[in-house]
From TrEMBL:
The chain crosses the membrane at residues 7-31, 51-72, 79-99, 105-125, 157-182, 194-211, 223-245, 251-273. It is found in: Cell membrane; Membrane. Signal peptide: none annotated. It comes from Brevibacillus fulvus. This is Probable membrane transporter protein. Belongs to the 4-toluene sulfonate uptake permease (TSUP) (TC 2.A.102) family.
């Protein structure tokens, strides 16, 4: 039974790492449902929502570190913007840990399912929304290898406020926060897609470390399952960076939407019929 669990978690970590790195989400959309489902089958009653979110967040830190290192080599991480996002997300990550401890299993499943359903809707309409043309206080440029120039910008105060909410969601649900951050960067601040993905992973890594330290102090992390997921997540993070350099990722995003919808409906159904 343990060998089956090991192979299954390695595969989940690999898949989540690839997709999470490719689209800048971190992979928590896969880790949390997998932990709540498969871990409780292996050891009934061993996985609570708090432990699932905390363990997921730790593995996300591994994925994010792996992919961020690769994106830094490709010079796609906007370090200055990432640090600004982190200023807001760090306290949000700590607040999310305390909010997580107040949720019961049924409430967690329902909120997690509804959260994913909303984010599924965001991803569905994201490509149809026109980027906002705003004269931001901070303006930045990125020039691709083919010479194409991208201009984007933001308000530092607005970034910090948004990042705080991202940090709360990150620790509360163990999803990393990229599912909110990437659409915000693309639609509101007009980040180039590859810069948004890479910068999001850098912020996710920093926020996940803060959240994981807080979770560790409270004893929420299941270290066995984190170790089982981590190798696949690390390799998946590296592969996601390689694929990102060669692929637009539209097919992956479509698959992600379908998976998010399926998991959302499953978690909502589980909460309703518990």
């Amino acid at each position: 039974m343990f060998m089956i669990m090991l192979i299954l978690f390695l595969a989940i970590g690999l898949l989540a790492g690839i997709i999470g790195s490719l689209v800048g989400l971190g992979g928590g959309l896969f880790f949390v449902p997998a932990l709540l489902s498969f871990a409780n089958q292996y050891q009934p009653g061993s996985m609570t929502p708090q432990i699932a979110a905390a363990t997921s967040l730790l593995v996300i830190a591994v994925t994010a570190l792996s992919s961020t290192a690769g994106y830094l080599k490709q010079k796609k991480v906007d370090v200055q913007s990432a640090l600004l996002f982190f200023i807001g997300s760090a306290p949000g990550s700590v607040a999310g840990v305390y909010l997580n401890g107040m949720l019961h299993a049924q409430s967690f499943s329902l909120l997690f399912g509804l959260f994913q359903l909303v984010m599924f809707g965001v991803l569905m309409v994201k490509d149809k929304l026109s980027p906002r043309a705003i004269d931001w206080k901070v303006k930045r440029q990125f020039i691709e290898q083919n010479g194409m120039k991208h201009e984007y910008g933001y308000s530092p105060l607005l970034v910090v406020l948004i990042a705080f909410f991202v940090g709360v969601v990150s620790s509360l649900f163990g999803v990393g926060g990229g599912i909110l951050m990437v659409p915000t960067m693309l639609v509101l601040f007009r980040f180039p897609p590859h810069i948004a993905t890479a910068t999001s992973m850098a912020v996710i890594f920093l926020s996940a470390v803060v959240g994981s330290v807080t979770n560790g102090v409270h004893g929420y992390i299941n270290w066995l399952y984190a170790v089982l997921l981590a190798p696949g997540a690390w390799v998946g993070g590296k592969l996601g960076v390689v694929i990102s350099a060669r692929l637009k990722g539209k097919t992956i995003v479509i698959l992600l939407r379908l998976m998010m919808l399926g998991i959302a409906l499953e978690m909502i159904g589980e909460a309703i019929f518990q």
